[in-house]
Every structure is written in C-alpha cells, then in structure tokens.
Design goal:
By secondary structure, this protein is an all-alpha fold. The protein contains 16 helices and no strands. Helices cover about 65% and strands about 0% of the residues. The radius of gyration is 20 Å and the shape is globular. The two termini are about 20 Å apart. The C terminus is likely disordered.
Length: about 350
C-alpha cells in the first residue's frame, strides 16, 4: 500500500472521536500541568524557569508568539473570565494574570493530542499493515490510554513531544528524509529526548542503507542534538538550576505507596502484553526496547522512577505492539510502501 493510498483511504469519521478523546484526556491532565515550582507555566513561557526545564523552548516560543497576535481585548476578556469563575480556574489550574497563556497552552495541548491520534493511525497502517478502520480504532485506543502515563504531573512539552515523536516515527517508516530533517530541530527544541529517534532510524534503515551513509546520518543527527543542547545551555546560562537534575539517591531510597505499585503493575503489564507479539513483530519490538531501555536508564539517574510521563517517547511503539497483540497480527511486516530512495 503506497503512502498516497493510505492518505486517500483514511476515513474522516474518527476525527470527531479523536477530538472528544483529546478533550477528555486534556481535562484530566489540565489541573496537573506544570505544578513543579521550578517549571511553573508562567515562568516557562516567560523564560525565567529553572534549568533544565527552561531549555525546552518550543511551546513557550509558540505561546508567546501567538499571544502577541491576540488583541488586547481578547487577553483582558480571558483574564476576566478566569477571575470571575474561581471554580473553573481551580478545575483547570489557571491563573487570571496569565489567562491567555494558559488558554493557548490548553489549545496547543489539545491539538497535539489530536495530531498524535492522526499520526498514530498512519503509523499503524504503515507499520502493521492495518486496514483504515482497524488503524483508526487502534489510534483511538492509543489516545484513550495516554492517561496511563499520569500520576505526578504533566509538563508543557509532554503532549507536543508525544505528537512530534509519533510524527517522526511516521517519517522514518515512510523514509521521507527531507521532512524528517525539517522536523528534527523542531522536536529537539521541544525536548532533547527527541534524539531517541536516532536509534529507531538506525534500526529501521540499516537493512536498506549502506553502513557508511547510515553512520553519516546518525552522526549528523547526534551532532545537531548536542549542538542545540549546548546552544540552549548558553542562552539560559543565567537561569537558576543545573544543566541536569540528579535523582539517583531518591530512586534508590524511595518506598512507593500501594497506589504507585498498582500503577507500576498496570504500566509494566502493558509491556508484557505488548511483547507477547515479539515473535511476530521483531523489528518493532527491537525499536521499542531500544527507546524504552534508554528511557529507563536515564530516568533512574535523571527522573523519578514511577513517573511514567518520562516514557511518552516509547508510547507509540508500545501501543503498536499492544495493537499487534490484541489483533493477533501475522508474522512479518506489510510490503514496503513506495518511498524516496535512501540517501
């Protein structure tokens, strides 16, 4: 099935379902957004938050740019709406002083979840060879299960990161390298973990691309990521905090509560279910384990174990494995779609 056929045959009826699911997930997530005192939403948008959080600049740049285009009356009206409805403000976690920023983040997060569903539908059709109806339902399931990552809080860049990473997976699967490299700096500006597309790229392209060319591509991706990380570090060198936060001691001494243990069982149970299709989806499982393994390792040192929002990058791959297990898909991959020659 060609990429053009995937586009032409994809039904439109799931769009309303995706919009409703995105709104439900968003309303669940909104009160938990940017609660950490070092990365509060107003400080993130203003560029005064602590490092390393402040270096994830994509959403703040978009919000500030869009806010500058809003009429002054619209900003004032939003502030009055929030201040006049304390219950609404408390439900959404908004502050009237920065109501337009909160509203724009809310809109951007909703669009990100909707884009995630559309991108996942295309990824499921391309990677698993699903027909349009099953691909659409798989995308609805992947979106509905996004809250499996909730538990602590959500950050400004989480949902955009999920959408951008899934879109990157689509471009890798379709070998659309021009668009992939246009997306590359955008994803890195959102969060540095976008670089985890590099191992996916290597595992996906190694059978079709000469090793020397493959190493050039991977080296360019890593060099761009490191260069951008250093540049952002220099821009925000005056902000409080350190380039990274170390949490190894906390993770080694933390005693999880029963609720956390239940959450752990559900999340890792999803991995067990997904990996039941290992023998039929070896390439996909290898990509999921590569990305997930890096995330577990870095979370041990730099994050909180049990904070599954750190694992959004692997969710599209895990959700594909879950779909393959649920649908009992046959071994192998569908015929390769027509794509530009690897370069």
């Amino acid at each position: 099935m060609s990429a053009g056929a995937l586009r032409s045959r994809a039904p439109r009826w799931p769009w309303a379902l995706y919009a409703l699911l995105a709104l439900a997930v968003l309303l669940w997530a909104a009160p938990r957004t940017s609660l950490y005192k070092r990365s509060l939403l107003p400080e993130m948008v203003a560029g005064t938050a602590w490092r390393p959080y402040v270096k994830r600049v994509l959403v703040p740049l978009v919000v500030r740019g869009a806010d500058a285009l809003l009429p002054a009356g619209a900003r004032a009206g939003l502030g009055e709406l929030v201040s006049g409805r304390p219950s609404l403000a408390a439900r959404l976690g908004w502050q009237s002083a920065h109501a337009s920023w909160y509203a724009l983040v809310f809109l951007l997060h909703g669009l990100s979840l909707f884009l995630f569903a559309l991108a996942f539908r295309r990824l499921a059709a391309r990677t698993l060879g699903l027909d349009p109806v099953r691909a659409s339902l798989a995308a609805a399931g992947a979106l509905a299960l996004v809250p499996i990552h909730f538990g602590y809080q959500n950050y400004l860049y989480d949902f955009p990161g999920l959408a951008l990473f899934t879109l990157g997976l689509v471009l890798v699967a379709e070998r659309r390298w021009g668009l992939f490299y246009l997306l590359w700096p955008v994803g890195l500006l959102n969060k540095e973990t976008f670089v985890l597309l590099t191992p996916v790229f290597v595992l996906s392209a190694r059978a079709r691309m000469p090793w020397r060319r493959l190493l050039v591509h991977a080296g360019a991706q890593l060099a761009t990521a490191v260069g951008l990380w250093l540049a952002l570090g220099w821009v925000f060198r005056g902000n409080p905090g350190a380039p990274v936060e170390w949490h190894l001691l906390r993770n080694l001494t933390h005693a999880p509560l029963p609720r956390q243990l239940l959450h752990d069982a559900v999340y890792w149970g999803a991995w067990v279910c997904g990996l039941l299709s290992w023998h039929r989806q070896r390439a996909l499982a290898a990509q999921a384990l590569a990305v997930g393994g890096v995330l577990v390792g870095t979370t041990l040192f730099l994050g909180f174990l049990g904070e599954y929002r750190d694992f959004y990058e692997v969710w599209p791959l895990l959700a594909l494995l879950l779909a393959a297990t649920a649908l009992r898909l046959p071994a192998g991959r569908p015929p390769a779609a027509a794509a530009p020659e690897d370069r």
